[in-house]
Specification:
Radius of gyration of chain B: 67 Å
Low-confidence stretches of chain B: 574-578
Largest sheet of chain B: 6 strands, antiparallel
Helix content of chain B: 40-55%
Radius of gyration of chain A: 23 Å
Number of strands of chain A: 15
Strand content of chain B: 15-25%
Strand content of chain A: 15-25%
Mean pLDDT of chain A: 87
Structural class of chain B: alpha+beta
Structural class of chain A: alpha/beta
Helix content of chain A: 40-55%
Number of helices of chain A: 11
Order of helices and strands of chain A: HEHEHEHEHEHEHEHEHEEEHEHEEE
Largest interface: A-B, 39 and 36 residues
Largest sheet of chain A: 7 strands, mixed
Number of helices of chain B: 16
Strand order of the largest sheet of chain A: 2-1-3-4-5-14-13
Oligomer: heterodimer
Distance between the termini of chain A: 54 Å
Low-confidence stretches of chain A: none
Chain lengths: ~350, ~575
């Protein structure tokens, strides 16, 4: 809510800019971020800024806004920019189910729209031909996480290695799940188990705990998990790194790890896998506390967003690094990362 | 400015004052009103948007509760086996059904639509259930909780009308085997109704909830259905805020999404009172401005009247004056400058009065002096002295002298009268003097000689008649020594450049310096003593020829006395033309 005076001054200035044409013909790009306090999202923001300024700098005026995890705030910001009329909206949705309102509005105003990191329903993306999605395929991350686990357990579903503590060739596992209803959380959870089963592994899900992607919540839940299942656990599958870090921290602080005289880790209570590739998680992987993680490649995603923006606004071709599927999707591949 | 010149001062002042004040008043009022209106609207819009957010949060609470319920069930389904944990799960279903008043029924189906567990008796076959929309959707997208449009749930033995079917794909264990199924919770509107009661949207304020396909999920009042304006505004706007008019009420529409669902809620907040207030403020302002302008015009009229009324009175006075009313004075009033002008006008009138009085006095003097000259002409003493002289000449048979005297007398009277003319040529005046001298010379038995001469160049100048006679008279009666045979009287008219000098010179005792001073004084002051003739001449000369003309007295004791009248030619030439 702007003060009326400021509003009128702004109006006058904008009118002047329009009239004098000195508003250089830079295209206006608005980016609405789900939550800048989320390390992964924050990393993407910086990548986008770097990419935009280095490759397209002269062509675009890019403004990035934080929606603070609030769909209402995202709606307000979006309304403001749809009313002002920009050249491109780039939205990291707070709620994937609500994204259809932006697509319908974009169609009405004919403002191209790129979603990223949280995929709108496919039926919604079909509403408008200039609506795109850039993101990692949650299914793929689940599959890769399953591969990571399979490798960790020796690669042979019929003869698991020493990590199968009770030697029953069944993996006793606990799932630490992200936000309930979140597409990634649901898909990662179901896919990782299915992929393991497809590979022939037997998995016993001891518990599925919902920690809302959150490190503290995961830390808190780990206490209950350890009390209920403790030694029975052979694997903790976390939907993201933040929660994996929470689990690890609880274990570190409650002496579940063993060290040699030089302080090097010698034994972990069970295998932990995460997804995202947060730098803190990468450090923990390098130190052996976390077995491995799937790197959600923020840098590639940012590059893809910028290339897609170029494609949408100027018709530039997209480099071989990315593929535009069905004229709508660019899938960013994951990379796995584990300790040597 | 050229236009203004066509206006009177009063019109100009009224126009200028009115225009200036009206412009500034209207400008400032418009500015203040606009700022005020924008501030008020911002405030109200902000409030409406906050209320909308509050309602959204309330509904998100509601949907979150539903999601939590789903999560709880999911968690328990993977903990308890349908075979040996059935009773526990059934207890959970029943407990939840009882705790949550908005829950109508809870049912778990296998993914082929077969009944697994339900709080109610299900009578519909699995084949039919498997094609229900609410059943199919979670099968396609197992990642979210699905909310159906309101409908009547017919799968149970007892129909549930107006329910929303909330479904989600779940995993459960049946006899040690992991299976996937669909969990259905049929929710009635009670929870939604409860929330609608606690909202504050003002009179006729309302809200509707619509889903992604623009179906109405819920409406706070039945009349706001798919045919209502509210619905069409909401579906057209998609999301965001906008002022709209519904059934003649000013409403502020705000549309936001409700989290975890495909729903969006459109709230309509009544802002009539605000718009009415703004309208009232506008009317008040218009009335105030009008009154201000009327007062301005009145004040402008009064002020300009105060300044211009004395001016128009002055104008009237001048017009009257022009028409001949010379007593047309004005009252001295009004502003300083006006007073000065009025005083000036009055002073002018006074001065004119004084001048006119002087003219009257002067005219009177002229008449008097003429009369006295005429009196002199027909001096009876002179006439009968002359007639005595004529008789004496006749008795002594001095015929020649007799003829000369009668001739002279005739000439004398002819010139004196001069057909009533006031001015005559110098030659004629000298002819008159000669006649007079002829008569007097005979009368005094040629006791003096006389001489009259004139410069030719000035003989034609016209002069006031009978100007020299009083001086000559004085010379005869008081100047010459009548015992002295050498007595003479010489009359000369000389051209002295710019001046014409008429002098009368006579022999005799002369006049002392003291006496001359006395004479000058007597002439100037015009008192009763002294020579009537001299005074007469002096006044006439001054009256007709002004201060430039002079009378000069020059005397040498026991020798002669000369009295000269000096008149500038310029004064005379004017007479000559006349």
């Amino acid at each position: 809510m702007m003060k009326p005076i400021a509003k009128s001054i702004l109006l006058v200035v904008m009118t002047l800019i329009l009239l004098t044409g000195c508003g250089n013909n830079k295209k206006e790009v608005v980016v609405l971020m789900y939550d800048l306090s989320d390390p992964f999202i924050h990393a993407i923001k910086e990548e986008i800024e770097d990419e935009m300024t280095s490759t397209l700098g002269a062509d675009y005026n890019i403004s990035i806004y934080d929606c603070e995890r609030s769909q209402i705030r995202q709606n307000e910001l979006a309304e403001q920019f749809y009313d002002a009329g920009v050249d491109l909206m780039v939205i990291n949705p707070v709620e994937r189910l609500s994204s259809y309102i932006f697509i319908e509005r974009s169609k009405k105003e004919d403002i191209p729209l790129i979603f990223f990191n949280r995929e709108p329903l496919e039926e919604d993306l079909q509403i408008y031909d200039q609506a795109y999605y850039v993101g990692a395929n949650a299914i793929e991350s689940g599959v890769m996480q399953a591969n990571l686990v399979a490798e960790g357990f020796g690669g042979n579903p019929n003869a698991l290695n020493v990590l199968d503590k009770n030697d029953d060739d069944i993996i006793q596992c606990v799932i630490v799940k992200g936000e309930q209803g979140h597409q990634d959380a649901e898909q990662r959870t179901s896919v990782v188990i299915k992929a393991l089963e497809i590979e022939g592994y037997q998995v016993d899900v001891l518990a599925t705990e919902i920690a809302d992607w959150n490190e503290e919540e995961a830390y808190r839940l780990t206490k209950t998990i350890m009390e209920n299942y403790g030694d029975a656990i052979e694997l903790v599958i976390s939907n993201n790194d933040a929660m994996a870090i929470g689990v690890t921290k609880y274990l570190q602080e409650n002496s579940y790890y063993s060290y040699d005289v030089e302080g090097r880790l010698t034994q972990s209570p069970f295998m932990i896998v995460g997804i995202d590739g947060l730098s803190e998680a990468v450090d923990l992987v390098n130190d052996g506390f976390i077995y491995g993680t799937i790197i959600n490649d923020g840098a590639s995603m940012a590059r893809a967003i910028v290339e897609l923006s170029d494609f949408v606004l100027n018709g530039d071709t997209i480099s071989d690094e990315f593929q535009l599927e069905n004229d709508k999707y660019i899938w960013i591949p994951y990379k796995n990362f584990k300790s040597e | 400015m050229k236009l203004l010149r066509e206006f009177s001062i009063k019109q100009t002042m009224i126009t200028l004052i009115t225009v200036i004040i009206a412009t500034s008043v209207i400008l400032s009022v418009v500015l203040i009103y606009t700022i005020n209106r924008e501030t008020t609207r911002d405030l109200v819009y902000g409030q409406a948007s906050e209320i909308n957010k509050q309602i959204v949060l309330n509904y998100e609470n509601y949907t979150n509760r539903v999601s939590k319920m789903m999560n709880l069930f999911q968690k328990r389904f993977v903990e308890d086996d349908m075979v040996w944990g059935r009773a526990t799960l059934m207890d959970l279903f029943t407990a939840m059904d009882n705790i949550e008043p908005s829950v109508g029924a809870i049912t778990l189906f296998s993914n082929s639509g077969e009944l697994v567990l339900s709080t109610r008796e299900v009578q519909t076959a699995s084949k039919e259930i498997a094609v229900e929309d609410w059943f199919v959707k979670p099968l396609y997208d197992n990642s979210v909780v699905h909310y159906s449009s309101p409908h009547t749930q017919t799968i149970y033995a007892q129909e549930l009308s107006d329910v929303i079917s909330v479904t989600s794909a779940v995993e459960y264990i049946d006899g040690g085997v992991n299976k996937s199924g669909i969990l259905l919770i049929d929710m009635n509107f009670q929870g939604l109704d409860e929330l609608s009661n606690i909202t504050n949207l003002g009179e006729e304020g309302h809200f509707i909830i619509i889903d992604a396909e623009d179906n109405i999920i819920y409406s706070s009042e039945d009349k706001y259905d798919v045919k209502s304006d509210s619905y069409s505004f909401a579906t057209h706007q998609i999301f965001g805020g906008k002022p709209v008019t519904i059934d003649g009420d000013n409403m502020l529409m705000n549309i936001n999404t409700i989290g975890a669902t495909r729903w969006r809620i459109a709230t309509f907040q009544n802002i009539n009172s605000v718009e009415l207030g703004l309208q009232r403020a506008l009317y008040t302002i218009i009335v105030l401005v009008t009154i201000t302008l009327i007062i301005t015009v009145i004040v402008a009229y009064v002020v300009s009247s105060k300044i211009t009324n004395p001016l128009s009175r002055l104008d009237d006075a001048i017009i009257k004056f022009q028409e001949g009313n010379i007593d047309s004075k004005v009252e001295v009033e009004g502003q300083k400058e006006i007073r000065i002008v009025s005083e000036g006008f009055n002073d002018m009138i006074d001065e004119i009065h004084r001048l006119m009085d002087r003219v009257v006095v002067e005219q009177e003097g002229k008449r008097k002096s003429e009369i006295s000259v005429l009196q002199n002409q027909i001096n009876p003493h002179f006439l009968y002295n002359t007639l005595d002289c004529i008789i004496w000449l006749a008795e002594t048979n001095r015929n020649e002298d007799l003829v000369n005297t009668v001739n002279a007398l005739s000439t004398y009277f002819r010139v004196s009268l001069s057909k009533g003319k006031q001015f005559i040529s110098i030659a004629e005046e000298l002819l008159h003097i000669k006649s007079y001298m002829t008569i007097q010379s005979l009368r005094y038995n040629q006791a003096f000689t006389y001489e009259v001469d004139c410069d030719e160049s000035v003989a034609d100048y016209r002069i006031m008649k009978l100007i020299l006679q009083p001086l000559v008279e004085n010379a005869i009666y008081h100047g010459i020594d009548k015992e002295d045979e050498d007595s003479y009287i010489n009359i000369h008219v000389k051209d002295e450049g710019d001046i014409v000098c008429l002098s009368v010179m006579n022999s005799g005792y002369g006049i002392t310096e003291e006496k001359i001073m006395d004479l000058y004084r007597v002439m100037e002051e015009g008192n009763e003593k002294g020579s009537v003739g001299m005074k007469n001449v002096y006044h006439r000369v001054k009256l007709f020829y002004g201060d430039e003309a002079k009378i000069h007295i020059d005397s040498e004791l026991d020798e002669s006395t000369t009295i000269s009248i000096l008149i500038p030619k310029t004064a005379l030439e004017q007479e000559r033309k006349g």
